[in-house]
HTH merR-type domain-containing protein
Amino acid sequence: MSERELRRNLAILPIGTVRELTLLTDRQIRYYEKNNLVHPERGKGGQRRFSLYDVDQLLKIKDYLEAGDSIKDIQEIFAKQQRKAQEKHNSQDALRRSLQSEFAKIGRFGVK
Amino acid sequence: MSERELRRNLAILPIGTVRELTLLTDRQIRYYEKNNLVHPERGKGGQRRFSLYDVDQLLKIKDYLEAGDSIKDIQEIFAKQQRKAQEKHNSQDALRRSLQSEFAKIGRFGVK
DNA sequence: GAATTTGTGTTAGATTTCCTGACATCTCAT
DNA sequence: ATGAGATGTCAGGAAATCTAACACAAATTC
């Protein structure tokens, strides 16, 4: 994972901040969590910690709901996006590996 | 200010998160604030809210202190950095303005 | 070398935020 | 009408944060 992705996925925000950033209520945020749409971590005392990625997801949820989609619809939408991201990830990995092995054959860049 | 800068300066982190990110104690963080080295905002109930920029500043403070500098030294260092950033900002503004007025003369790009 | 300053630890009590669980309400679709 | 889905609201408790004060070691100043 890139540095940028790491930062994006750092669980650093309490629910109060997320509430302000998304204009959702605590109730809504917790409900979406219960329905597996977001997955905040928990701090030492058991309080939720959200990442910036979570905030993005919550904003998407908001949009989808306002567009008439149900929680279940959104679960499927996210599952689909998840699969695509995974494929993309895999194909990038594959590309990288094949490029590296090509370079290794040419012998100009070591694959360390 | 750019979108990126805006995000960087958004006051979103409670002191607990900042404590974990910097490995400083609350006491230290508050002391540095009292000495004008960081300037967290306050939430509705009066609790501190730090930005990612604040976190960076705190990490710098930590480095400087470990390097033997005093709080006052750091105040001056920051003041100097502040002035330089300001100058850079101004010169960028000046450049932008002069470019815009050049374009305006040529008449191809309106200065909105 | 005694006195002061500096940076930090620690504690206490009050306030704010967050937690879970339950019950209520409203809107659709059946 | 009935039931499911999404949200509001409330209660009681736990966790996080706040300020102010006292303590203290190390460095600095007189």
Observations:
- Chain A touches chain B through eight residues (CB under 8 Å).
- Chain A has five helices and two strands.
- The beta strands of chain A are 41-42, 48-49.
